[in-house]
């Protein structure tokens, strides 16, 4: 178990716990906007997992995927926030 | 302790700290009482957590030409996180997700009232 393995195992455990808490809020969230924020944090965790994979396997192939994942998270939450306030015309 | 291992230690420390940022955001999401405080915790991993992760990737990759791309990825997140938090907060305030008892002082109410008053004149 080199130092890299220990760190990546630790990061995996921490991110799993973070994802569990976020999914708990995603399921329980009383209102739609709670779920939007929880999905935003979940996408940030997915981005973090991508970064951990890049560090562990010594490549930087999915840096573009990380940018796209974070932008999709942003677009999703802005769209929902935009449309939650509209009166049902 | 050659120079390479020092860099490795720094990269792995950044990685673990970035993961802890996401954990703190998840704990904030679970424990905070109402939506606006949860929103405060929600943007933590996007900006600082991602920054730590990207420094770890930059140090591990060792290629200086990756740095601009990583900075671009981070600046995108830096610009978009406040905008999405603002939009969600505005939608939350407008659509009565607000719990008055958690607020100390609500400056926005008089601004909205004044705006409404000017509109109706």
Automatic annotation (TrEMBL), chain A:
<protein>
    <submittedName>
        <fullName>Monovalent cation/H+ antiporter complex subunit F</fullName>
    </submittedName>
</protein>
<feature type="transmembrane region" description="Helical">
    <location>
        <begin position="6"/>
        <end position="24"/>
    </location>
</feature>
<dbReference type="InterPro" id="IPR007208">
    <property type="entry name" value="MrpF/PhaF-like"/>
</dbReference>
<feature type="transmembrane region" description="Helical">
    <location>
        <begin position="36"/>
        <end position="56"/>
    </location>
</feature>
<feature type="transmembrane region" description="Helical">
    <location>
        <begin position="62"/>
        <end position="81"/>
    </location>
</feature>
<keyword id="KW-1003">Cell membrane</keyword>
<keyword id="KW-0812">Transmembrane</keyword>
<dbReference type="Pfam" id="PF04066">
    <property type="entry name" value="MrpF_PhaF"/>
</dbReference>
<keyword id="KW-1133">Transmembrane helix</keyword>
<keyword id="KW-0472">Membrane</keyword>
UniProtKB/TrEMBL annotation, chain B:
<feature type="transmembrane region" description="Helical">
    <location>
        <begin position="65"/>
        <end position="88"/>
    </location>
</feature>
<comment type="similarity">
    <text>Belongs to the CPA3 antiporters (TC 2.A.63) subunit G family.</text>
</comment>
<feature type="transmembrane region" description="Helical">
    <location>
        <begin position="42"/>
        <end position="59"/>
    </location>
</feature>
<dbReference type="InterPro" id="IPR005133">
    <property type="entry name" value="PhaG_MnhG_YufB"/>
</dbReference>
<keyword id="KW-1133">Transmembrane helix</keyword>
<dbReference type="Pfam" id="PF03334">
    <property type="entry name" value="PhaG_MnhG_YufB"/>
</dbReference>
<protein>
    <submittedName>
        <fullName>Monovalent cation/H(+) antiporter subunit G</fullName>
    </submittedName>
</protein>
<keyword id="KW-0472">Membrane</keyword>
<feature type="transmembrane region" description="Helical">
    <location>
        <begin position="6"/>
        <end position="30"/>
    </location>
</feature>
<keyword id="KW-0812">Transmembrane</keyword>
């Amino acid at each position: 178990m080199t130092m890299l393995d220990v760190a990546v195992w630790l990061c995996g455990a921490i991110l799993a716990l973070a994802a569990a808490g976020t999914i708990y809020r995603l399921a329980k969230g009383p209102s739609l906007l709670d779920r939007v924020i929880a999905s935003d944090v979940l996408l940030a965790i997915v981005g973090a997992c991508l970064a951990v994979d890049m560090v562990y396997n010594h490549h930087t192939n999915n840096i573009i995927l990380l940018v796209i994942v974070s932008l999709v998270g942003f677009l999703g939450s802005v769209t929902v926030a935009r449309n939650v306030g509209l009166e049902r015309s | 302790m050659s120079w390479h291992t020092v860099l490795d230690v720094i990269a792995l420390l950044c990685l673990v700290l970035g993961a802890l940022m996401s954990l703190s955001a998840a704990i904030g999401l679970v424990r905070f009482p109402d939506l606006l405080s949860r929103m405060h915790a929600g943007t933590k991993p996007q900006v600082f957590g991602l920054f730590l992760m990207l420094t770890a990737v930059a140090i591990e990759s060792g290629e200086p030409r990756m740095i601009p791309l990583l900075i671009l990825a981070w600046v995108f997140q830096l610009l978009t996180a406040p905008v999405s938090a603002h939009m969600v907060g505005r939608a939350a305030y407008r659509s009565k997700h607000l719990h008055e008892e958690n607020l100390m002082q609500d400056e926005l109410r008089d601004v909205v009232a004044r705006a409404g008053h000017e509109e109706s004149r």
